[in-house]
């Protein structure tokens, strides 16, 4: 059993992990950059260690400093949160080489799923349905053009190492292929150090549906249904919900079982998310994330489980605390991502919080590292809070979201809260009848 866990992250997700540790009687160690000396995760953890200067490459991505912090504090395990080092196979290997435990999957699973071509091949072999496209990497423009004709336009060119919505370019017609192919390659190279790309059919009206899976590393795995994350801006999620308003119980059970069986077969350990596009009743795999996701609380709300606690348990070698039959859906949950950004361009808006008041009441959860007087540093991403609401059904969750957004006060910086007030007025949002392109169109005409 672990006595002490180090959290290699910051912000709300660091708080999320500290809270789970505290409930389990485990000591927590925060790490922080010099810019984060006054951050909430530093205040809330049992111990805190400075690991470097503000740029994340020198602090939150500084593997040597993080390992040293474990040695200094006697932490036996590392929780990576999401982002930063959470999907870095080399980091996992180094942790193991130091006889520490990584709270997450194996280096091998991260490596396989981190390369989108290998991930797709693996999933295909495990019986998971995939988006039609090139068979692996596309070496040159001539092959790209030939494949474009074969699958039929529009197509999307994706960097195999891509992530966070970067390294993807759409070619509407053959005439766009050259620039899309070259740009996706260049973005792959400059952002991820890998210029390999592949091609997929570009789906024009899909929803983004992702299945939460969880494994014990010993061949047992379950699914915790889906999340619908179709409201996206620049391929980035802004509003997520569970269950998905367009998914039937039969579809959930079938795709859920396919996913749970697939990860059971590879002895997957911990939390994972298998992402699909869903169009005309069909699921098409796009990628797997081998970590806890930003939007995991909506799943926790409807199933009444603590996914971080489960991650820690299986990392200790314990069994999962639930079986598939224990997992039943209760009500409906919605999360909105509150970013310190100025509309209409979503320009990052760091600065000092002059007043912060979190909403409360029945069915409301606010995961945020803000406090009165806190200064949001300009060095990291702009997510400052997640508001999660839970109701008996979707209309109740929507009404609760509206009410909770009205209670929330974040003064001193601009935030994305006005976007959610406006979205809640929209018929498509009230009906849950949108696809992944809806928000982009809405933003063009409404902001
Ligand atoms: P990333 O790793 O950068 O998040 P993903 O492969 O998960 O990239 O795709 C992110 C988003 O991009 C999807 O949720 C969807 O909105 C869009 N997308 C990806 N592949 C396709 C496709 N084949 N057709 C249409 N949209 C796609």
Automatic annotation (TrEMBL):
Catalytic activity: N(6)-biotinyl-L-lysyl-[protein] + hydrogencarbonate + ATP = N(6)-carboxybiotinyl-L-lysyl-[protein] + ADP + phosphate + H(+)
GO molecular function: ATP binding; biotin carboxylase activity; metal ion binding
UniProt pathway: Lipid metabolism; malonyl-CoA biosynthesis; malonyl-CoA from acetyl-CoA: step 1/1
Residues annotated as domain ATP-grasp: 120-316
Domain Biotin carboxylation: residue ranges: 1-444
The organism's place on the tree of life at top rank: Bacteria
Keywords tagged on the record: ATP-binding, Biotin, Fatty acid biosynthesis, Fatty acid metabolism, Ligase, Lipid biosynthesis, Lipid metabolism, Magnesium, Metal-binding, Nucleotide-binding
GO biological process, one term: malonyl-CoA biosynthetic process
Catalytic class of the enzyme: ligase
A Pfam family assignment: Biotin_carb_N
The protein's Enzyme Commission number: 6.3.4.14
InterPro entries attached to this UniProt entry: ACC_Biotin_Carboxylase, Acetyl_CoA_COase_biotin_COase, ATP-grasp, ATP_grasp_subdomain_1, BC-like_N, Biotin_carboxylation_dom, Biotin_COase_C, CPAse_ATP-bd
SMART domains xrefs: Biotin_carb_C (SM00878)
PANTHER family: BIOTIN CARBOXYLASE, CHLOROPLASTIC, PYRUVATE CARBOXYLASE SUBUNIT A
Role this protein plays: This protein is a component of the acetyl coenzyme A carboxylase complex; first, biotin carboxylase catalyzes the carboxylation of the carrier protein and then the transcarboxylase transfers the carboxyl group to form malonyl-CoA.
Quaternary context: Acetyl-CoA carboxylase is a heterohexamer of biotin carboxyl carrier protein, biotin carboxylase and the two subunits of carboxyl transferase in a 2:2 complex.
Record protein name field: Biotin carboxylase
